[in-house]
Structures are given as C-alpha cells and as structure tokens.
Design a protein that fits this description.
Helix content of chain B: 25-40%
Strand order of the largest sheet of chain B: 7-8-9-1-10
Number of strands of chain B: 20
Number of helices of chain A: 12
Radius of gyration of chain A: 24 Å
Distance between the termini of chain A: 12 Å
Largest interface: A-B, 59 and 66 residues
Oligomer: heterodimer
Strand content of chain A: under 5%
Low-confidence stretches of chain A: none
Shape of chain A: globular
Radius of gyration of chain B: 24 Å
Low-confidence stretches of chain B: 1-44
Strand content of chain B: 15-25%
Number of helices of chain B: 16
Chain lengths: ~325, ~575
C-alpha cells in the first residue's frame, strides 16, 4: 500500500511541475500584460511603462522568469500580487473562505438531493418520478449557470424581494442568519448542476448494484427491503461515487466562478477571473497551482480510498 | 478650508482661471449646464444643511475593484475613488475648472508671487493645521518627500511627467516650500491638482521597499476619511476623519462595494442595496428605466473622454488625408448616438471636452454625406476594384477595426461602420480582442489599423496633449508618450511647445484653439462623440457633484450627506 501511495504521489508532483510550466508559458505568451490596464487611463507614457516593466522584472526572458518564480515558490514565496502588492498566499486565503463556504453548502445540497433522486430513480425505474428526474437533470445540465443566476435574482430578489440580490453579507450586519440569507441563492444555483450530476451517477451506480446476484440472493433469503437497500445496495453503489467526488472539484470550481460573478460573492472564482483580466501573473499562477494541487489531492484521496476498499486496485 | 480660488498666471489681461462670467465671455459658458444635463434636475427634495457631525453611511458601488492604495503608484480611475477620500493634493479642480487650495493655503500664481514671471520658480504656502490620520502634523517635508519619491529610481511611480522637471526643492519653513522647474511647464499646475496626492514622510521613509509595505494596504493620509477595512474582492470601508481640515465629512462611513457585472450592479441599485452607482455607472440601456425608479435620482453627465476612431496614420490608405475625410463624412454619427447610445452622448469635433475653458468653438461640424465622400475619393484617384473596394497605386482601401471584445455598444458601432464605409468602397473587417490584449503592445506599439476607443486627452483640466499628438511621443518610433496614432505635424509640435510654456490663460486658449483646428483639419482622430456617464444616487443623498476635471465623480464624498 505504501508503495502504491508513493507512486501516486510521485506522479502527482510531476504533474504539478508540468501544469506549472504549461500554465506559466500559456499565461505569459498570451498577448497583453499586467500594465495594459493602465493604457486606457492614459497617465503613463511609454517610458513609464518600460520603467515599471523593468522594475517588475517583466523585461527578462520567459525561462528566467519561470525559473525565478519556481525557485521562490519552492521556498514558500509565491510572490506578490501586481494589483495590490499583497502576498499571493494571503490573497488566496482571503478569498478561500468565501468559496469553500459556497462550495461546501452546494456540495451538501447536491450530494443529499442528488443521491436521493438517483436512488429513487433507480428503484422506480421508468416511473413518472424517474422520467421527471431525468428530464430535470437534462435541463439543469443544459442551463447556463449565469442565466439561471440572473433569473434567480430577478424572481427572488427583484420581483418577490425574498432574497438579497447578491453579496456575502449585509455590510454592518454579518449575523449568522444574515450570512445564511445571502448564501441561499448562490448555493442553490451552484448546486443545480451538481445535483443533476450526482443524481445521474447515483442512478447508474444503483441500477448496476440492484441487478447483481447478491441482491437477488438477499431478497430470496427474505431480508427486509430497507436493509437490502441500505446495507447492501447503497453502500456498494456509493463506492464509485468516491471517484466522482474526487473529480468534482474542477467542475465545482468552474461553477463557483460563474455563481460568484453573478452574486458578487467575494471568492476564488471571481479572484481568478479578475486576475486573468488584469494579467496578475503571480495570483493567476498561485490559484492555478492551488487548484491543481486540490484536484490532485482529491484524485489521490479517491484512488487511495478505492485501494483501501478494493485491494485488487493496488496490484492492478 | 481657505476659499481662495486660484488664479493661474496674470498676463496683460489679468486673466486667471476664469470665473463664471469670464467663462461666458471666453465662449465656454456651456460649463454651467453640463452637470445637470438629462434628468439631473430631478432633485425633488429641497436641499438641507449638512449635519453637525457625521451621520449614516454611503454604500458606493463600483464595477472595478480598487486595489492600489498608494496614490503615487500605477493605478486606474477606480483607485482614485479611494485616493480622493484618504489623501489630499496641494489643490484640486472644482467642477467649474477652478483650482481650489487643499493642503496649500493658496494656489500659486504670478499675481500672488507664488509663481515667478518666467514660470520657473514655484513658492507654495501650506496649511499649518493639517494632521495625518495618525495625528502627526503635515509639513513641507511631506511635500518634498512625495516629489522626491516620484522621481526615485527605485520607486514604481505611476508617471513622472512634469515631476522630472522639479529641481532644487527648498523647505523655507514647515509651512512653505519652494522649487525650481528645469523648464517652464504650465500643465504642472493641473498635474499637481488632479493626479498628485501627498504621502506621509514619517511613515514611508522607514519602509525598506517603497513598492511594498504595510502602508500599501492600510494607507494613512490627510483626507476626509480614514482607512477602515478591506475585504478583498468585496468591499472597502473608510471611516470619517473627525480632524479633517476641510469641509465635511458628513457621513460616518463610506463603503466601496465591488460589483463587477454592470447588470448586477444596476439590479442592486434598483433593489436598494447600494446608494450610489459609480465609475461605469448605469448601462445606457437601463437609463430610461432608471429614471422611473422611485426614490432614485439619475445624473447623466459628460466626461472628458472622447469616443473616437483612432486611425494608424502610418497604415496603408489612412496616410492619405482625403481618405480620412471621406471615411469621416461617411459615418452616420447620429445613428450611432441615437440608436446605439440612446441619444445620451453629444457630438464633438475636438479632443477637448466642450465644458473646458480651452475648448475651441466653431470647429467644422461633421455632416453625414456619403455622396460627397464618394466624390472626394473619385477625385483623389481611388478607383473601385474587385468587389467594389477602392484602390490607388496598389494600396487597397481595406483595413481592420479593433476594440475591446465584449463591449456590445462598440461592437454594434462596428457593424454600422462596416455598412457606412462599404457604401463608399471601403472594406472594414472586425478584429476585436480582450482588454488586456488590445491595450498592450497592439495599441501601444501602433500594431493596429484602426481602433474604436474612448480617451481622456486632458491632464486634469489642462489641454496639453504633447504625449498624445507630439511627434516625439510615438512609442512605435521610440518616442516617449502615447501618440499611437503616429501623428506628426511640425505645426502641432510648435503649438504644443508654446502652450506648455505659456502661463496666461487667454494666450493658452488661443494656442490650444489653434491646435484643435489643426488636429480637426488633419483628422488625426475621427471623433464620434464626447463620453458620458449615467450615475444613480438614492434620493436624500445630497452633495453629489459630477466633476469633468476628475476621473471619477465620487471625488467629493466628503461633501455628501443624507437629508
């Protein structure tokens, strides 16, 4: 097991290095640069641009810039944001809480609701519920999150006035109830796609399990249906969901990016968009590395958990 | 605060920055009306007096996030929203174009002895009752430190234009500072007013890296509001400075709320979550509806920005003035204004805003005349070739036009231009790019054919456009400036040099008037309209005064209060 984990860890580290090199190259080779935002404000002359560019070290060759950045990153120095001069790790951590809050809430909603819909759909295959769930999932997967967010704001904020039109809290309030009030709409919007995906995966997994021989045997032995469902079927159906959960992070992050923009949620997604727009290289690279690490950790954990559950994987 | 209005130079006519009557005499009387264009007079409530002490808070929504809090470093307009609250300049420019002393006791002029007759010696008398937010007294040392910091090679200063001419800074007394200018440079008055904030020596002289220190994220200034807190990506809170040396502040807190999407920003204004929509304001398509909202006031005001088509004068057919004139005649400007911009902007022929003292009246007015455009091109030997596209001497009248992708109004403008210009045998193709791309080397190094862009050509309120139209300011040719049009004119160079040396307002008005005629005649740019902004405030919020001389209209939140 230790060898298996070490192998997977080595692969993950190699992947991170590759991601960093590709990310760095793509980001820096894209036209424009961190100073282009100032061209429109027109207070800086070309001479000023060149001077500031030199001071930021942007006039050096790309490999030198990469090696410099990589070397400092290994020492724990992820650089400073070009926009506000804050340390990158501090910038990321200041946005992380909001995103985790949103993602965790959305995930809880999605897992609970999605699994319930999936299980019920599988047990009542081709019933009205199953048909509606399937159609609903297709619709949810097809609706652009941005549009759904705007409709939610229009209906629940503008027309009905039930929910705030955005923000994480009312400035000056910030009570738990206020936070929850603000969390409802963005979390539901973010959870929509997730719920649909969890529902579909769960339905497939459950269908596969309940058609297995051991389930038939359990029924033949007269085991109560609820026990068959929870102890034998559900536990086994949840196994492949470990992988799904591990790989859901990028999707969730992508959804958060949109939901945060629509609901003015001060999280990582918006930070990422803003930083790309401003070509804030250190922050973009920081988020990229952070996200890649999270995805790899998720995937690694899923693999390890799977190996723990199914020993055949370790030797495969 | 001293209420002495600065006079800029004296000369034979004893003209300073003109007062309202002089504005009218100078033909710039339009200044009176611009602030209250559109629905601005929709103030139904009677203005009341400001409260005795700060009361309530203002939530100001911005579509970009302020991130640069050191006011001398590279920043964008939205950052100035913070700078104007936390810091103070020596003097500022009011909506009528007057210089108003702030940290200075009076604005230096030749009349009051603050400026020598040759414009080389500047003597600034400072207020002695100003304190930094941490209680330390403000002195001439701070002014000297700020000017030196800008010119420091290690410091990532935004711009050194004007400042690099400052030599021999001499502190005469804690409240008086003198310096010498290497050459006379009258636009420096505006640079000091609108773009130069004074920073605290006692804090910044101790930092090891002038480009990164705790000050950068918790600035200390002399302005009406103290730094409160910042939640990155969300909001910045500033608290009233009870010891402020000027008028106000009248609210306890200002919260700058960052809402990147303009539709969402408008929705939050509509639902009452924000009190003021700033910077990019309300999208034109929402303005009519916004005017009907209860409890909201909408101000539509002009900005200094001039929306124009920037031709690269070194590219193909654009080098021919006749082509530029024909293209200009073939633009249906009114359709662009009415159909795409909801009739909100006004036509212009100059790079100077119509409300400025330096605006030249009587420039040739644009007329949509495709027949004349065709005739001009025929006469100049541009003949129609394959596909109806004209050519002359092997040069085809075809080019690309670029603008920021995602800017719906500009993209629609391009569609109208394609139609308008096709009618005269000019083929235009769209080549749009994201902001971070187009305003990089593509724009700065004149790699474009033509671009639709809005530019504020003014230095504060000064019409010195040497960096924009000077022959030595073409970056693609190694110049120091942003003359990306690659405009070269010996006469323009002469006028620019002359205007920058003059301190008499009447003389300067003549000089820059000539320059505007020249640039209009040469069609160095094809102006579409003067920029505008629609901003909303909640009813009951008093004191909002759009200021065309500032980059941001929330420059005076210190004067805002709830009725």
């Amino acid at each position: 097991m230790a060898r298996y984990v070490a192998n997977r860890l080595t692969q993950a580290i190699l992947l991170l290095v590759i991601v960093s090199a590709i990310g760095f190259a793509v980001l820096h080779l894209a036209p424009g640069g961190p100073l282009s935002q100032f061209a429109a404000s027109a207070q800086m002359t070309q001479e000023d641009f060149e001077r500031v560019s030199r001071q930021l070290g942007l006039d050096r060759s790309l490999p030198i810039q990469y090696l410099d950045w990589f070397g400092r990153m290994l020492k724990g120095d992820w650089g400073r944001s070009y926009r506000d001069g804050e340390a990158v790790l501090s910038v990321i951590s200041s946005h992380l809480g909001a995103t985790l809050e949103l993602m965790a809430t959305a995930t809880i909603i999605a897992v609970l609701l999605g699994c319930w819909i999936g299980v019920l759909g599988a047990l009542r295959r081709y019933s009205l519920f199953d048909t509606l769930a399937t159609v609903g999932a297709m619709i949810a997967l097809s609706i652009p999150t941005f549009w759904f967010g705007l409709v939610t704001i229009y209906v629940f904020s503008v027309k009905l006035g039930w929910l705030p039109a955005g923000n994480r809290e009312t400035i000056g309030d910030g009570s738990p109830l206020d936070l929850l009030h603000h969390l409802i709409a963005p979390a539901l919007v973010l959870a929509l796609v997730e719920t649909a995906m969890w529902g579909r995966f769960m339905r497939s997994a459950m269908l596969e399990v309940i058609n297995q021989d051991y389930i038939r045997t359990a029924r033949a032995k007269g085991m109560p249906e609820w026990r068959i469902l929870t102890v034998h079927a559900l536990r086994n159906a949840l196994l492949p969901m470990i992988t799904v959960a591990g790989l859901q992070f990028p999707t969730l992050l992508g959804g958060a990016l949109v939901a945060e923009t629509v609901f003015t949620w001060p999280g990582m997604g918006r930070l990422f968009l803003d930083s790309i727009g401003y070509r804030d290289y250190p922050v973009v690279m920081g988020i990229l590395m952070f996200s890649a690490t999270m995805v790899l950790i998720g995937s690694l954990l899923a693999d390890i958990l799977y190996a723990v559950v199914d020993p055949r994987i370790r030797v495969g | 605060m001293a209420d002495d209005t600065g006079r800029f130079g004296v000369g034979a006519l004893h003209l300073g920055i003109p007062d309202r009557r002089q504005f009218v005499q100078l033909g710039a009387g339009a200044a009176a009306g611009w602030t209250f264009a559109g629905n601005a007079f929709a103030q139904t409530e009677r203005p009341t007096n400001p409260p005795d002490k700060p009361r309530g808070q203002v939530i100001a929504a911005l579509s970009q996030e302020p991130t640069v809090f050191h006011p001398l470093m590279p920043g964008i307009e939205v950052d100035q929203g913070i700078w104007w609250q936390v810091f103070s300049p020596l003097w500022f420019i009011d909506p009528d174009g007057n210089f108003i002393p702030d940290l200075a006791r009076e604005v230096p002029t030749i009349e009051n002895g603050g400026l020598s007759a040759d414009g080389l010696t500047w003597k600034i008398k400072l207020r002695s009752d100003v304190k930094w937010h941490d209680g330390t007294p403000f002195t001439a040392e701070d002014v000297k430190f700020s000017l030196n910091l800008i010119n420091s090679p290690d410091f990532r200063a935004r711009s050194r234009v004007g400042h690099h001419l400052v030599k021999d800074i001499d502190i005469v007394a804690p409240d008086e500072i003198h310096w010498r200018m290497e050459t006379a440079y009258s636009p420096y008055m505006s640079i000091l007013a609108a773009l130069t904030f004074i920073v605290p020596k006692h804090i910044l002289e101790k930092v090891t890296d002038p480009n990164a220190s705790p000050f950068h994220n918790a600035p200390v200034g002399t302005g009406p509001f103290r730094w409160g807190e910042r939640v990155p990506g969300d909001h910045i809170q500033l608290n009233a400075n009870a010891g402020y040396h000027g008028k106000g502040p009248y609210v306890e807190r200002v919260v700058f709320k960052y809402i990147p999407d303009l539709t969402v920003l408008y929705t939050q204004f509509r639902t009452g979550q924000v009190d003021y929509t700033g910077l990019q304001g309300i999208l034109p398509n929402f303005v009519q509806e916004a005017k009907t909202l209860k409890g909201r006031k909408i101000f539509v005001s002009s900005t200094s920005s001039v929306e124009h088509i920037a031709p690269n004068l070194e590219f193909g057919a654009f080098a021919d003035r006749t082509v530029r004139e024909a293209l200009y005649l073939a633009i249906n400007k009114q359709a662009i204004i009415d159909a795409l911009n909801y009739g909100l902007p006004t036509q212009t022929e100059s790079f100077v805003p119509q409300q400025a003292w330096s605006f030249q009246q009587g420039l040739p007015q644009h007329k949509y005349d495709p027949a004349k455009a065709n005739a001009l091109l025929d006469a100049a030997g541009w003949v129609r070739g394959a596909g109806g596209v004209r050519e002359k001497g092997g040069v085809k009248l075809e080019f690309t036009n670029s603008t920021t992708s995602g800017n719906a109004v500009r993209e629609q403008t391009q569609q109208l231009l394609i139609q308008d210009w096709r009618a005269i045998g000019a083929a235009m193709r769209v080549n749009n790019m994201p902001a971070a791309v187009i305003w990089g080397d593509f724009w700065q190094q004149s790699k474009f054919n033509s671009v639709i862009v809005g530019v504020n050509f003014m230095l504060g309120s000064d019409p010195d456009v040497t960096p924009r139209f000077g022959s030595g300011a073409i970056p693609a040719k190694g110049g120091r400036g942003y003359n990306t049009y690659q405009y070269q004119s010996a006469e323009a160079d002469r006028l620019l040099a002359q205007g920058a040396r003059q301190f008499d307002l009447a003389q300067r008005k003549t000089t820059y008037g000539e320059l505007q005629k020249l640039v209009r005649n040469d069609l160095a740019i094809l102006p579409l309209f003067q920029g505008f902004i629609a901003e909303g405030v909640k009813e009951g919020l008093q004191g909002f005064r759009p200021n065309i001389n500032m980059s941001i209209n929330c420059w005076n939140i210190r004067e805002w209060y709830w009725a």
